[in-house]
Amino acid sequence: MASAIGDLHRSDFEPAPGNGEERQAFVQMNPNRTQIREPPPPHELNGFLTSEDALFQTLHMGAAEVDEDKWMLVVDGIVERPYAITLQQLRQLPSKTLTSFHECYGSPLLPPKKALSRIGNVRWTGVPLHSLIAAAKPHPQASFVWSEGLDRGKFGPVEADRYQKDLPMDKALSAEVLVAYQMNSQPLGRNRGGPVRLVVPGWFGTNSTKWLSRLSVQDRRAPGPFTTTLYNERHPADDPECESRPVWKVQPNSIIVAPTPETNIHGPEVLVEGWAWCCDSKGIGGVGVSVDEGQQWVMAEIGNREDFSWQRFRARLQLSPGSHVVLARARSPSGRSQPMGEGRNHVHRVPIVVR
Ligand SMILES: Nc1nc2c(c(=O)[nH]1)N[C@H]1C(S)=C(S)[C@@H](COP(=O)(O)O)O[C@H]1N2
Ligand SMILES: [Mo]
């Protein structure tokens, strides 16, 4: 695949303009303020694929309006052959479609302690990032790929001339990272980051740069406010002296989609179902369901994983008449579990009444 792109590069691709010309595709910010579209409640996320309407949106500085005729993707940095490609050229390259959960970390200004359920599961189509990077022939010191969006403006205390993120080389070159131009077989809309965005399966949504215009191979982390200032977290168990960690890998998490909260259900058998996900390439390690705050667990049956998708879990409980609070806790293959209490991925609880 890399050689197919290498051939195209030699014959068709333009050398990178090197003067920020790719930013001329920016028209305006609309809206030009932070906008978050919250997802529907978990019991309405029952389908394996989340539709465009039901998928949350997170725009820090608003949405960039992009002129597709002027759009180009620049690939440069410490590489032998910096280049630029048009939208038409990108769409002609060998593409890949994969399913992945998509989760927002939450606000980097007020690190979230409560579960947000900003989650969905969608199918992305695009060109693997590794082939676009290989075509530029990175120098041996290459250690990060910086990505830039065309959006600009204010976010909380920060003013930025672009959204900028970075990926360590091993993730950037993994088979799953895409430079995507479709979601669920449709072109990416404006709020979704169209015409082209990055998609980083298994890692938090913040890494998936929308309105993508430039990929730059570098030997260090990117300096922008969305990499080393914001989106760094400290876990409660961390030594306060140690450095905070970038918001990269998604921790195990789950939502209960059935039963619906606050409903009356026929007992004694109650079917509990939901979705669980984590960054591990092997998928989720297991899900336990409990009605006594974790004193006793019923282990759920776990469904298949498609690429980096979320996975179905299903458990049958025998419940006495009366009020119950059902909770589900996912764990990663290495044994890391969702917290019961405080934490952005704490367990989801659903109160029900059994008749
Ligand atoms: N250029 C740019 N990319 C961005 C953002 C942004 O504000 N600007 N938001 C990030 C965050 S925090 C998340 S969670 C995802 C959200 O993608 P979505 O709005 O398509 O769901 O995009 C990420 N990529
Ligand atoms: Mo996010």
How would you briefly describe this protein structure?
This protein is mainly beta and 355 residues long. It has helices spanning 2-11, 87-92, 129-136, 169-172, 225-229; strands spanning 14-15, 26-29, 35-37, 57-59, 64-66, 72-77, 83-86, 96-103, 119-128, 144-149, 153-155, 158-160, 164-168, 178-183, 186-187, 197-199, 212-218, 232-233, 245-246, 253-258, 264-265, 269-277, 286-290, 298-299, 301-302, 311-318, 322-331, 348-354. Helices cover 9% and strands 37% of the residues.
What would your notes on this structure say?
The chain is mainly beta. It folds into two domains: 2-246, Oxidoreductase, molybdopterin-binding domain (Sulfite Oxidase, Chain A, domain 2, Alpha-Beta Complex); 253-354, Sandwich (Immunoglobulin-like), CATH 2.60.40. 9% of the residues lie in helices and 37% in strands. It is built from five helices and 28 strands. The strands form eight sheets. It has a six-stranded mixed beta sheet with strand order 1-7-6-17-10-13. Strands 8, 9, 14, 15 and 16 form a five-stranded antiparallel beta sheet that branches. A five-stranded mixed beta sheet has the order 21-28-27-23-24, with no helix packed on it. Strand 23 and strand 24 (298-299) form a beta hairpin. Helix 1 packs across helix 3. The chain is elongated and about 70 Å long. The protein starts with a helix and ends with a strand. The mean pLDDT is 94. Bound molecules: the ligand Nc1nc2c(c(=O)[nH]1)N[C@H]1C(S)=C(S)[C@@H](COP(=O)(O)O)O[C@H]1N2 and molybdenum atom. GO terms for molecular function: heme binding; molybdenum ion binding; molybdopterin cofactor binding; sulfite oxidase activity. Keywords: Metal-binding, Molybdenum, Oxidoreductase. Residues 1-20 are annotated as: Disordered. Its cofactor is Mo-molybdopterin. Residues 247-339 form the Moybdenum cofactor oxidoreductase dimerisation domain.
